[in-house]
C-alpha cells in the first residue's frame, strides 16, 4: 500500500525541499517532490518536521555492544594491547554470558533509537552470517575484509591482495582497520597497501590516526574512502585521523561510532563529539552539511550502496523524521537526542517512532511495542523489552546500559 508524507522539510542531503512530499510504495521512494502523487490512502501532514536520509554508521562491531568502556593504559600502542586489556576485564567476562544473537540485537536497537538505518559491522562473514537475519536495521553484508594491515592482524579473510581483487571484481568495499596506532608496522599500513596495489575506490580504511601527508596524497589520488571514529580514537590513543587534511584533499570521509567498549555511547554522541573535536583542533566550524554527508551519501558511496544515502525517487526508502528548527535543517543533525527522533523508516517500513505516529503504524497494519526511551513515549517494531530482560537474566543483575535507556510505558 502506498503512503504519503506532506509538508516536510526534506534534506536530500544535497539540497532542501521546503514543504516537500514523499510518496512511499513497497520499499522505495515513488516520488520526492513539492507535491505528493495524491492518490495514497494514507497521508500524513508533517507540519514542517525535518526529513533526512537514514543514517549510515561506517564502523561498529555489533558483538561488542556492551559497556562501560574498557582500558586504563592509554594511550595504547595499537589495538592488540587494548584487546588484551579488554579480554582480561571483568566487564568482558560479564558480556560473555550474553548470547551472541542478543548482542547483535542490542547493537541494532542501539542504532535504531538514534536514526541509524544501516551499519558496517566489522567481522568475518562466517560470524556475521550466523546473526544478521531478523535484525531491526540493515547490516552491510557485501564486503571483502581484512582485520588490519599488519603481521599481527587477525586472520579474517583471504590475503589482502585477494580480498581487494574480489572487491574490485564484485564492486563491493574492501574494508580494513588501518593506521590505528603508533608501532612501526601500523604506521606503514598505507604504504603496504600501495605496494600490494590495494588502494582504489573500493578501499575503505577505518581510523587512520597515523596517516602521514604522503598517505593522504595516496588516498586522494586513488579515490579511497576513510571512516573517521574520533570518540574511539581519542579514548584509546589521545589522537585521531587528520580529518581536515583528508577533507581538504577531497578524500571521501565517513563517520563511525566503533563499539561502545571503546567508542561513543551512540551516534548522537559521535556526531556531537566529531563537531566539537573538529572545532577545537582546527579552530573552524565543521559545516553541518559536511557532517551530514559523512553519515549519508559518503558512506553510501564508500560501501557501494547505490540506492541509499539520499532521498531520491527510486531509491530505497530509508529515512528519518526529526524534530528541529526547519529554518536551519542541517543543524538538526548535531543537536538531536532521543526526544527528537520522530520516525525511522527502513526499506519503506516504519520501524520506530514517536507515539504521535501510532496512527501510521496502525494504518499500515504494523505491530509495535510501546516503550519509554529516555522518558519519551515511543513505539518500536520488535521486542526490545524482552531483549533487555534476557540480558539481565544472563548477567544475573539489573544491568543499566547508557545507550539503551528503555523502560516500559
Ligand atoms: Zn574496529
Summarize this, please?
This protein is an alpha/beta fold.
Q: Keywords, please?
A:
409 residues, alpha/beta, globular, binds zinc ion, 5-stranded parallel β-sheet, TIM Barrel, 2 domains, 24% strand
List the uncertain runs.
Answer: none
* Bound ligands, named by name, code or SMILES: zinc ion
Spatial shape: globular
Mean pLDDT: 97
How many strands, what sense, and barrel or not for the largest sheet?
A: 11 strands, mixed
CATH architecture of the largest domain: Alpha-Beta Barrel
Give the end-to-end Cα distance, rounded to a whole number of Å. Answer: 30 Å
CATH superfamily of the largest domain: Metal-dependent hydrolases
Helix-residue proportion: 25-40%
**Please, how many domains?**
2
Q: Which structural class should the secondary elements be placed in?
A: alpha/beta
Beta-strand share of residues: 15-25%
Amino acid at each position: 500500500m502506498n503512503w504519503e508524507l506532506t509538508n516536510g522539510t526534506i534534506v536530500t542531503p544535497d539540497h532542501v525541499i521546503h514543504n516537500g512530499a514523499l510518496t512511499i510504495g513497497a520499499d522505495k521512494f515513488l516520488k520526492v517532490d513539492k507535491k505528493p502523487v495524491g492518490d495514497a490512502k494514507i497521508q500524513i501532514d508533517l507540519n514542517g518536521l525535518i526529513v533526512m536520509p537514514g543514517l549510515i554508521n561506517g564502523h561498529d562491531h555489533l558483538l561488542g555492544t556492551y559497556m562501560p568502556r574498557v582500558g586504563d593504559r592509554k594511550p595504547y600502542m595499537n589495538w592488540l594491547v587494548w584487546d588484551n586489556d579488554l579480554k582480561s576485564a571483568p566487564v568482558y567476562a560479564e558480556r560473555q554470558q550474553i548470547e551472541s544473537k542478543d548482542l547483535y540485537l542490542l547493537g541494532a536497537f542501539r542504532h535504531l533509537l538514534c536514526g541509524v538505518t544501516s551499519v558496517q559491522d566489522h567481522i568475518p562473514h562466517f560470524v556475521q552470517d550466523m546473526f544478521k537475519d531478523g535484525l531491526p536495521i540493515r547490516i552491510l553484508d557485501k564486503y571483502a575484509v581484512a582485520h588490519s594491515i599488519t603481521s599481527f592482524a587477525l586472520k579474517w579473510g583471504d590475503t589482502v591482495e585477494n580480498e581487494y581483487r574480489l572487491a574490485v571484481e564484485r564492486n563491493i568495499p574492501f574494508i580494513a582497520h588501518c593506521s590505528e596506532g603508533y608501532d612501526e608496522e601500523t604506521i606503514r599500513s598505507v604504504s603496504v597497501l600501495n605496494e600490494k596495489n590495494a588502494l582504489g575506490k573500493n578501499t575503505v580504511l577505518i581510523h587512520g590516526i597515523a596517516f602521514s601527508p604522503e598517505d593522504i596524497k595516496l588516498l586522494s589520488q586513488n579515490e579511497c574512502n576513510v571512516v573517521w571514529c574520533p570518540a574511539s580514537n581519542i579514548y584509546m590513543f589521545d589522537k585521531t585521523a587528520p580529518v581536515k587534511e583528508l577533507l581538504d584533499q577531497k578524500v571521501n570521509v565517513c563517520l563511525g561510532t566503533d563499539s561502545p567498549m571503546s567508542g561513543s555511547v551512540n551516534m548522537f554522541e559521535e556526531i556531537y563529539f566529531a563537531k566539537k573535536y573538529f572545532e577545537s583542533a582546527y579552530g573552524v566550524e565543521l559545516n553541518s552539511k559536511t557532517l551530514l554527508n559523512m553519515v549519508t551519501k559518503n558512506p553510501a558511496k564508500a560501501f557501494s550502496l547505490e540506492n541509499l544515502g539520499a532521498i531520491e525517487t527510486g531509491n530505497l526508502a530509508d529515512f528519518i523524521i526529526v524534530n528541529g528548527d526547519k529554518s536551519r535543517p542541517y543543524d538538526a543533525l548535531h543537536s538531536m537526542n532521543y526526544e527528537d527522533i520522530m520516525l525511522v523508516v527502513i526499506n519503506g517500513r516504519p520501524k520506530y517512532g514517536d507515539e504521535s505516529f501510532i496512527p501510521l503504524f496502525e494504518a499500515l497494519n504494523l505491530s509495535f511495542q510501546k516503550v519509554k526511551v529516555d522518558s519519551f513515549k515511543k513505539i518500536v517494531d520488535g521486542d526490545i523489552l524482552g531483549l533487555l530482560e534476557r540480558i539481565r537474566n544472563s548477567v544475573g543483575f539489573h544491568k543499566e546500559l547508557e545507550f539503551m535507556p528503555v523502560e516500559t510505558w
